[in-house]
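Problem 12. The chain below contains 282 residues. Write out its predicted structure in C-alpha cell notation.
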Amino acid sequence: MAESNPQPEQSSDSVISADGTRIAYLTIGHGPAVIIVPGALSLASGFTRFAHALGTAFTVHTMERRGRGDSGPQGADYTIADDIADVKALQDKTGAAFLVGHSYGGLVALEFARANPSCRKLALYEPGVSVAGSMPTGWMDPYEKHLNQNKPFDAFVEFVRDMGPEGMRKIPRWMFRRALPLFMKAPEKEMVIAQLGANLREHREIARLNDTYPHYQEITAEVLLMDGDKDRRPETDADHTALAAVIPHCERITVPGLDHFGIDKNAPERVAGLIGEFFSRS
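Solution.
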C-alpha cells in the first residue's frame, strides 16, 4: 500500500517594514503567492488549517500583524497606515498579487488594494467596514477604563456584548464575566488578553474610517466578498451591499452555515476551496 504524502511544513521568516518594525510571517505551499491578513484578536497560527488548504495550489504567506507574536510592537500612535506599509513590505519581498483579508484584516486589505494596483485579486471574509455608523462604539470608553484598571475580562465583556450577535446584549454582564473563563482556556485566553490594547486601537480605526467606503471605487483588483449567514449582525448585509456597489469588479458569496470565524475556525478548508477557485480563474 502506497504511503500518503506528508503534509508540507510551514516555515517562518520576517520582513522589515518602512518604519523599521519587524513583521513575522508563516509560509506554506507552492504556486502563485498569496498574503493572508488576519483580523483583530488573531494570530497567524490561527490560519494554519486555511493556509494548508490553500497551499495545495498557492504559496501562502500569513502575516503576523504588528503588536502580536514575533512581530514588532504596534505602538500607541498606531494607525491602519502602519498595517498597509507592512503588507507592502511583505508584497515587495514575496511578489504576491493575491490578498486574503479577514475582519479588520479585510479593511487593511481594502485600503492596501486601493493604493496598490499591483494587487490583482482580493478575497475578503466579512471585512471590518463601517457604513453609516454600523460599527458600534459605545463599548470603547468602558473597555478602555477596564483596561486601565487592569480588568481585562471586564473589558472583553464590553467588547463581546456590543460587537456580537444581538442576543448577546441581553445577557447580563455578570453572567458573561462568570462564563468567559470557562469557555476561554489557555492559550486562547492569554492570546486575547495580550491583544486587548491593539484591539481597541484597531476598532477605533474602523470608526474613524466610517463611511469612507466610496473610495474603494478606486480598486482595480477583482474582489471576492464573502460572509456567512449564521449569527451575523443585521447590518452586515447592508454594509456588504454598499461595499459591493462601489467596487468596480466585485463578486459576492454568502456561505451557508458559517459565522464570522468560518475562514479560520469553523470551516477553513471550505472557504479555502472557494477562494482558491476564485484566484485560479484567468
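Discussion. The chain has two domains: 11-129+212-280, 140-202. Students who got a different answer should revisit the alignment rule from Section 12.3.
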